[in-house]
Amino acid sequence: MIDGKELTLGDQTFVCPPTPFACVRKYEDIFxxxxxxxxxxxxxxxxxxxxxxxxDLKQDVFEFQNLDIANFREAFQICLTVNQPRxxxxxxxxxxxx
Length: 98
Prior knowledge:
Elements: E1 5-9, E2 12-16, H1 21-26, H2 28-31, H3 39-51, H4 59-65, H5 72-82
Antiparallel strand pairs: 1-2
């Protein structure tokens, strides 16, 4: 299990680890705060992230049983927060980076 932040979605608690690099590269503009994520992109990023600790997780089942409109944006925000260097807020550029 990769360390991260606990996240309760539906009736299940997950440990949200840092997002895998391949996903960060694919959605680089979102992680750098250069663009807002669509709902589909948020769902894909959140799923790819949780899959690191839960390899048997199926995206369609996860989205149907665990995600809802009430928890979706908060879950995505937690996912982004886990990926930020300490002291940097999501979307904030790290000093020294363009």
